[in-house]
Structure formats: structure tokens, C-alpha cells
Amino acid sequence: DAGVIQSPRHEVTEMGQEVTLRCKPISGHNSLFWYRQTMMRGLELLIYFNNNVPIDDSGMPEDRFSAKMPNASFSTLKIQPSEPRDSAVYFCASSRGTAEKQFFGPGTRLTVL
Amino acid sequence: GNSVTQMEGPVTLSEEAFLTINCTYTATGYPSLFWYVQYPGEGLQLLLKATKADDKGSNKGFEATYRKETTSFHLEKGSVQVSDSAVYFCALSENGSQAGTALIFGKGTTLSVSS
Questions:
Q1: SS3 of B95, please?
Q2: A20, A65 in Cβ contact below 8 A?
Q3: Which of A47, A48, A73, B76 is the most buried (most CB within 10 A)?
Q4: What whole-number percentage of chain B has pLDDT above 70?
Q5: CB-CB contact of B92 with B2 (8 Å)
């Protein structure tokens, strides 16, 4: 089975540009999580969905960040406008049934110049 | 609120040395506890878990025991290998292991093993 798929794997953009990160969860998983990882702050949960519905977005840093899950097989995380402090690795994870079975994607390394 | 505190790294060991990575937690109720591992360039993978007090999780030679009295879940391995070099994350699940429950992660501890 394919794992969680994220694209792109690397993104380099300039400050002020819109960035869209994509995630395809494992088929049959009903929960999807977006995380951000930096050296300074470690791994942070940004938002998560259950059955395509956002449950907790308290980790989203500010209004520049938005996430959608239009269907069970696709989610996006958008940053508009991007800033250098958004540079990080963004992970998507999905799970079915129990929280511990979260499967992580390979991550998207975002660099905002 | 709930939180997880891990020992700061990096931890540098020689092959076959004994490993301990400390993890303590603060939680209301009875959380489940986990260790995840992140190898270079990859996402996190579940290493082991424990769902109640005195449970011992184990996998790939790693062990951790859920100690409610000391609110700890320390990771141990008797003899590390170079291939164990990775970042290790302690985590807890609020409200137990329920569907879609968000995990709370520690900051991670980098382990580097040399031959």
C-alpha cells in the first residue's frame, strides 16, 4: 500500500508568494493531521480533520495559514502570503481508528526567501 | 495543559552502548504514551506504545515502561547500533487512544551512534 503522499517534497519561494502544500492520506483513514517542524519549536500540530471536518485548528499560527479537506483523499495547507519565518518541514499524517496509528508522510521542506 | 518533556540532545554513543532517553509528561486523566522515531529525511514512525500504567512497550530492542507514579516513559535499549541514529519523539494522546485524537509531542532527542 502507498503511504501518505505529500507534494511537493521541496519548495523554495519568495516572501509574499502563495504556497500550497498537498497531502493524500492512506486510503480508508478518516483522520488527517498537519504538523510543522522547526529546530526552534520542534514538532507542532497545526490542524486536524476527522471525516473531512476540521476539529481543532488552534495550532494554526495566524490567518495567513488555511487548510482544507474537500474529500477523504485530499487535503491542502495554504500559506498566503508566505514569510521567511514560515520556513520549516511540514508533515501530513493520517490515521484510522486509534490515535497511535498515525502514519506520517515524508514531509515538504519549505524555504521562504 | 497536557505536555511532554524530553531530555535535550544530542545524545552521542558508541555502538553497543546502553541508551536511555528520558521522557516525563503532564496530563489529566489517563493518557496513552508513545515513542516515535524519525530517520534522516523521513517522516515519523511509531516505535512503541503503552496504553495504561505499568504497561511496557517494546519494539526493535527498544523498551519503555509507563510509570504513573513518576509520570515517566523513558526509552531504553541495551545495545545501540549505528542504524539507530535518528530523532526520537515522546508523545501522549489526550483522552486515551480514541479515533482521531491529536498527539502531543516532545521536542525530540537526536541520537547519534558511531561505530
A1: coil
A2: no
A3: A48
A4: 94
A5: yes
Alpha-carbon distance of B52 to B65, in angstroms, equals: 10
Q: A2-46: per-residue pLDDT in tens? A: 899 999 999 999 999 999 999 999 999 989 999 999 988 888 899
Q: Are residues B34 and A100 in contact, defined by beta-carbon separation less than 8 angstroms? A: yes
Grid coordinates in use for B36?
516515535
Of B41, B98, B100, the CB nearest to A48: B100
* Amino acid letter, residue A56: D
Do the Cβ atoms of B103 and A42 come within 8 Å? no
> A38 to chain B: which residues are within 8 Å by CB?
none
The burial class, CB within 10 Å (0-12 / 13-18 / 19+), for A62 is exposed
Query: At A17, which amino acid appears?
Result: Q
CA dist A102 and A110 (Å) reads 22
| 3-state secondary structure (DSSP) of residue B85 | coil
